[in-house]
Amino acid sequence: MIRFYYHPTPNPAKVALFLEESGMDYEVVPVDTRKGEQHAEAFRRINPNGKLPAIVDTDGPKGETRLFDSGAILLYLAEKHGDFLGEPEDRPELLSWLFFVATGIGPYSGQAVHFQMAAPEGMDYAINRYRREVERHYAVLDAHLDGREFILGDVYSIVDMSAWGWLDRANRALPGSNDALEAFPNLRRLFHTVEARPAAARARKVGADHAFKTDMDEDARRAMFPSNYPQAS
């Protein structure tokens, strides 16, 4: 059984998609980041970094096994399940593109959203920096997808799931149009191909029965961006 610590944001969405694609047994454990539940001692024992997603595999190699970071979780679960990894000869490409999403598209998209949606005014340099890097990463992956159905070629894998999680927020990372992916036709096609899968519709329903906090008030900002506030001595 997989205990899946979840908040409705892009990185947990990737894991939700995998769990629905694979049919693995799992239990959703909501963690409300706007209420600061990610800082609870019990959760920090699972993810010392206090971020979502995280999982506990109750039937792991050492009994209960914790994992955190969406890329690590996807790789672990795919290896455990024995699917969505491509062919053995695809391993170098799979690892390269999985880390490309983890170190490029994901964090730059997150920072683009933050500086445009949550930061105070006057951050024009940061906004330009992160928007341009999102566009650059999109262009790299768009060029790679030319002539390929999926990132590894003709096989659907955890890399496509990982990209889907953040491409879903393209209009927030690059606001100003109704379709931020229009300029990246291969990337847009990939997103809609994954989005059309039945498992994607099921993944979007994960956690829907939990009332996550939606207000971005001062308590939520302190919970989500604690490093912005001086620590009490």
TrEMBL record:
The keyword Ion transport does not apply. The keyword Ubl conjugation does not apply. Pfam families: GST_C_2 (PF13410), GST_N (PF02798). PROSITE patterns: GST_CTER (PS50405), GST_NTER (PS50404). Coiled coil: none annotated. Keywords: Transferase. One of its GO terms (molecular function) is transferase activity. Residues 87-216 form the GST C-terminal domain. Residues 1-85 form the GST N-terminal domain. InterPro entries: Glutathione-S-Trfase_C-like, Glutathione-S-Trfase_C_sf, Glutathione_S-Trfase, Glutathione_S-Trfase_N, Thioredoxin-like_sf. This is Glutathione S-transferase family protein. It comes from Pararhizobium mangrovi. The lineage of its organism: Bacteria, Pseudomonadati, Pseudomonadota, Alphaproteobacteria, Hyphomicrobiales.
